[in-house]
Amino acid sequence: MNMLSSHTANTERASSAHGRVQASRVSDLMRLTCLSALARDSILWQAIDYHFAAPGSQSRSAIALHAATKLGLTDEDSVHLAAAIECLHNASLVQDDLQDRDPSRRGQPAVWKKFGPDLAINATDLMIASAFALVASVGSGHRSTSLAMHMQRAISLTLQGQSEDVLRIHRSEKDALAIAADKSGPLFALGLVLPLLAAGQEKAAPLASMAGRHFGVGYQLLDDLNDIEEDQKSGFIPNSVLSRMEVDTIDNARQQIALIASNHAALARDLAAQLPQDCGELFSQSCDQLIAKLRF
User: Fold this and answer.
1) Which residues face 105 on adjacent strands?
2) What is the DSSP letter of 170?
3) Contact of 160 with 182, CB cutoff 8 Å
4) Residue 109, φ and ψ in degrees, nearest 5
5) Dihedral Cα 286, 291, 294, 296, nearest 10 deg
6) Sign of CA dihedral 52, 105, 87, 219
7) d(CA 221, CA 262)
8) Which of 91, 140, 274, 279 has the most beta carbons within 10 angstroms of its beta carbon?
C-alpha cells in the first residue's frame, strides 16, 4: 500500500469512527431531552424508554449529520439537528402504529399495544415538543426562528398527508402521489433543509425540500408494495396501489408502481446532487439504494 492509499484508508476509518460517535450522541441526546422532565417511575417515562430501547436505522439522522458536516456546522449543532429529526420520525412511527392499529414495531409490541392509545398520544406529543427544544439551541435570532418555522411546516404537511391517507377512500393516481409526498417527504427533507438553514444556505432549502418530496413518494410506494399482501388480507389496499388496480392486474400494477417510485427516487437523487458543498451526497446514495429495492 502506498502512502496516499494508506492516508486515504486512515482518513476513511477516522471518519467512520467519528460518524459512529455522532450517531451514539444523537440517540443519547434524543432520549435525554424526551425524558429529562419526567419522573423515572412515571408511565410516560416507561413508554418513551421502551420505544427508544429498540432503535431503528437512524438513516434520517445520518443524512442530517452528513449534510451538517459537509456544510461546516459544529458537532454540537449537527447532533442537535439530527436528534430533532429523529424525535419527529419516532413520533410519526408511534402515531402511525396507533392510527393503523399495527400491533408491532421493531420486533416488539407497538407503544399503543403495550401501554394503550392514550399513552401513545402523549408519547407522540412529547417527542414533537422535544424536537423543538433541540433546534432551539442551534443558532440564534432569525436563524433559530427559521429552523422552527420550517420544522413546523414539515410537521403540518406530514399530518396533512397522514390525515388524507387514513380516510382510505378511492383516489386518483395524482391524488395518491400527492398524499405520499406529504406523508413521507417533509421529514426526509428536514435532514437536508435544517443543516442548510443553520449554515446560512437558505436559497438551497427549496431544492432540498423538493428532493425530500420526491424521495418520500418513492419510499411510500415501496412501503405500500411491500405491505400489499398483508393489506389484501385485511381488506385495505393503499391508495397508490388501488388507483392502478382499477385499470390493471395486481402484478402489472406492481411493476408500474415500482417504475413510478424509481423515477421519483431518481429525481430526488438528481436534485440532491445540486445542493452546495456535496451536502446531499449521502441522501443521493439513499436514493440509489431505494431504486435498487424497487427492482422486482
Assistant:
1) 108
2) -
3) yes
4) -55, 140
5) -130
6) positive
7) 9
8) 279
The verdict on pTM exceeding 0.70 is yes
| Range 142-296 has CATH code 1.25.40.10 | no
- Is residue 239 within 8 A of residue 254, CB to CB? The reply is no
Which range (55-69, 97-111, 163-177) has the least confidence?
163-177
Q: What is the overall mean pLDDT for the chain?
A: 89
Task: Name residue, grid cell 434524543.
Answer: 30
> What is the longest distance spanned by two Cα atoms in the chain?
63
Residues of the chain with CATH 1.10.600.10: 1-138, 142-296
User: CB 123: neighbour CB atoms within 10 A?
Assistant: 24
Cell 433543509, residue?
Answer: 193
First to last CA, the chain: 40
Burial classification of residue 127, based on how many CB atoms lie within 10 Å of its CB (0-12 exposed, 13-18 middle, 19 or more buried): buried
